[in-house]
Structures are given as structure tokens and as C-alpha cells.
């Protein structure tokens, strides 16, 4: 069986452009790969790692291969090693980084390989070269083409919604992300006066989301609107709730199922553990069914890890 695959390439050490060109050529001359197309080289700023790194050069390449996804993954590691790649620090500087983005329509998650790549859909430095050469390829989880995902990244308002059970936990996440990136970068809404009973959550959220819809674009001087809710959430809490009419789709939806130790104490009074687990399952199912644009899924992540992930995602989508 022959599979069509998409590979992302990046480097910010040494002769970056030459390294990426050589890596694509090495795979193209391998009898197990047939090069279909390579993208232009794109200069980008580093995202999420230590400060002071050199700029990256990024690219993408599309191949046909008779190898399995695991075999392709191993080949990419071998090519990285040929170019001196040493994995010391997450999101750190590297001589060459090769990521398997898509392997046909395969979806899988193992300790070694996740397909599609879990952070590809919102990273401009990945999506721009990918859409250049593979706009017709379909993201098997989102059901959108790479061209459609790229258009949403560049044309939708810079709005990020956090799809998570409502409450102070989500507000704290947004406040911490704002603190990391700075208030000029990230705008967040005023804190909500949370009710004592979960039965009032849907109406409280509906009001807050309605107000947000009237101020969908970030205020002057801010780059991103970060909302501690998903606009579909009131309908999950109360099936009789009227869906909010949002101006457009957000640029990014982050599904966050927080680790139990990160949940604010007031939220434990709203639901029993069983009821909260049920809400989380329904929330995850709804996001998977309804979100077809850029998406980040964080399941079981604590507050610190979630802040790191969301901060890096916002930087990457700029």
C-alpha cells in the first residue's frame, strides 16, 4: 500500500536552509520515498522555548511511501541524527527537526507517535508551508483541508476560546496566560460573579458570552481576545438554552480537561465527581463533533502545563 505523507521541517542552528534542503533530498533519494512536492523556505521566530534563540527556517515536504507510519517516524529520526540533532530541551534550538504531520487519514496516539500531529493546526510556521504544497489534504480529526485551516488562521479574528468546565479555574488559566504574554498582547474579560448553584451557570455564562459577542475583536492595543469559555458551553449545561450567535468562529479552541488538583474548590461544590466527569465527557465529545478549525486538546493537564501550552499556542498562531 502506498501512503501520502506530509512532513514538517525546521532548523535554527547552522546553515538552516541548506540543512533543510539536504534533508528533503536525502529522503527523496531513498527508494522508500517518492517526493511529490516541497515548499518554499520560511523564516520564523522561535516559539515556546528559551529566550534568545536564533530565527528558524521552516518548510514542508509531501511524499508517497510504502513504509508504515512507525517506519517513517524512525527514518525521520535517523535523518535528524545525521544532521547532529540532540534532543535536550523541549522547544529548544535544534540543527534539524522533522515531524510527521499526516500519514494519509491515519489517527493514532502512542508514546512514540501521534497522528495527526497534535499541534499542527494552529501553528503558522507549520501551516503556511503545509498549505502551500498540500492545501487539498484533509486533517482526519478536524475534517477540514489544510487550505481551510490556513485560511482560518489568517482571516479569522484573533480569538481563543477555552472549552473547559466553567468556573474560576478557567479564569485563572486565562489570567496566567495574560501574565506570561503581557496585557498588551492578551485581553481577557472581567471576572464573572459565579453563582452558588450549578443550576444558574448556564444563564450566567450566556450573559457573559453575549457581551463578548459584541466585543469579539480585541480592543485597540491588544493582539488576542482570550475567553475562559467555549461559546457552545451553555447548551451543554442546559439543553433548553439558546445557542449564542457568535460573529465568526474563533481562531483557536482549546479543549482543557484539568487535572483534579488544579480545579478551584468552588467548582467541587457545583458537581459530584461523577457529574463533573460526565460533563467533561460530553464537552470532549461536543468539541470533537463541532470544532473543525484549529484546535488544541489538553486532557488531564495541570494548571502550570496548561498555561505553558496555551501561551505557546497563542504565540504560534500569530
UniProtKB/TrEMBL annotation:
InterPro entries: Hppk, Hppk_sf. The keyword Kinase applies. One of its GO terms (biological process) is folic acid biosynthetic process. One of its GO terms (molecular function) is kinase activity. Coiled coil: none annotated. The keyword Secreted does not apply. Residues 90-101 form the 7,8-dihydro-6-hydroxymethylpterin-pyrophosphokinase domain. Keywords: ATP-binding, Folate biosynthesis, Kinase, Nucleotide-binding, Transferase. Pathway: Cofactor biosynthesis; tetrahydrofolate biosynthesis; 2-amino-4-hydroxy-6-hydroxymethyl-7,8-dihydropteridine diphosphate from 7,8-dihydroneopterin triphosphate: step 4/4. Its EC number is 2.7.6.3. Gene3D superfamilies: 7,8-Dihydro-6-hydroxymethylpterin-pyrophosphokinase HPPK. Catalyzes the transfer of pyrophosphate from adenosine triphosphate (ATP) to 6-hydroxymethyl-7,8-dihydropterin, an enzymatic step in folate biosynthesis pathway. Belongs to the HPPK family. PANTHER family: 2-AMINO-4-HYDROXY-6-HYDROXYMETHYLDIHYDROPTERIDINE PYROPHOSPHOKINASE. This is 2-amino-4-hydroxy-6-hydroxymethyldihydropteridine pyrophosphokinase. The lineage of its organism: Bacteria, Pseudomonadati, Planctomycetota, Planctomycetia, Pirellulales.
